[in-house]
Amino acid sequence: MIPTVLTVFGTRPEAIKVAPLIRAIEASNALLSRTLVTAQHREMLDQVNDLFGIVPDTDLNIMAKGQTLNGIASRVIGELDTVLAEEAPDAVLVQGDTTTVMGASIAAFNRGIPVIHLEAGLRSGNLQSPFPEEANRKLTSQLSALHLAPTPGSRDNLLAEGISPDDVVVTGNTVIDALHLAVDMNVAPTDPIVGDYVAADRPKLLVTTHRRENLGSAMENIGDALAELAEDRPELLILLPAHRNPLVREAVLPRVEKFDNVLVTEPLSYGEFTTVMAASDVILTDSGGIQEEAPSLGKPVLVMRENTERPEAVDAGSVKLVGTDRDLIVAEVAGLFDDVLAYDSMAKAVNPYGDGRAADRSVAAIEELLGVGERIGEFAPSSLHY
């Protein structure tokens, strides 16, 4: 009997990173694919699934207004347990560090079903930052049978925690596989404002911010920094796809709304966002995934966080931590636009995250785990940009 892999995911970042692997599992003659979404992020999740042609077999649709993290975890574990009892998959695949990942790992482990963790081994070293992601991924590592680590550094983190090296495979990150697929699609923006940004022949800064730990005064600092940049540099075009969290909008938007060179839009689809990234000169963000994607496009990334679980890009020189201090953000952004050598050193840095074959390596490792195949060579960081 052909073994079945049930892929469980619930948010847009998870959907982006599992999509290439789901497609690879579907293409395998040795595995059967089933997909389940918790819909922790409803609309943004559906956009990504539509782009990559992923049609979930099961949709738990767990979200309710005002739900706590414990409420989400409880529903994931309870409702997924029913599915696991009925379908009895041979393995459960999860990606990353969301509450969906943690809950699904517990549910599968308690059913005696092997857990496969895609993007395993990321660590910030601080349980409170990012919260709750650092705790989620550490818990998931303890329950997983196969750890698909994106980088050698991620593998080393797992080995330091006592994970057997036989259970770890360095695959590269599937976000690079997804990026290659999406860039090739060349998705046109639906919002004319975004289309104008992409077409504009002037310096361009793309900004995204949403992290829970940046809410409050830190988010206000970010808004103040953007306002200062907009006022001091009228030639600079700033695109801000605004996160739907009202706490983000209330802190940032009033500070920038009077500037004609700050373009505020609704969140972009993943396909549109890849087009925008490719058209931008510098990216200012607190996102984790963008730290991985942008180096493949040769874009310098300034990260508005105090630490990162993705140190490889910092070490390579393509990413720089700037925190949430207003003056530092302004100085670092200005430095990249004013200093050609500084810009080029970041834009041409080594890409440490992937070569577009992470899904192939992951499928081979899964086939070996389930006794129907063999692993292939592991990923080694490349200096090539896409």
From TrEMBL:
<comment type="similarity">
    <text>Belongs to the UDP-N-acetylglucosamine 2-epimerase family.</text>
</comment>
<dbReference type="Pfam" id="PF02350">
    <property type="entry name" value="Epimerase_2"/>
</dbReference>
<dbReference type="InterPro" id="IPR029767">
    <property type="entry name" value="WecB-like"/>
</dbReference>
<protein>
    <recommendedName>
        <fullName>UDP-N-acetylglucosamine 2-epimerase (non-hydrolyzing)</fullName>
        <ecNumber>5.1.3.14</ecNumber>
    </recommendedName>
</protein>
<feature type="domain" description="UDP-N-acetylglucosamine 2-epimerase">
    <location>
        <begin position="24"/>
        <end position="367"/>
    </location>
</feature>
<dbReference type="InterPro" id="IPR003331">
    <property type="entry name" value="UDP_GlcNAc_Epimerase_2_dom"/>
</dbReference>
<keyword id="KW-0413">Isomerase</keyword>
<dbReference type="GO" id="GO:0008761">
    <property type="term" value="F:UDP-N-acetylglucosamine 2-epimerase activity"/>
</dbReference>
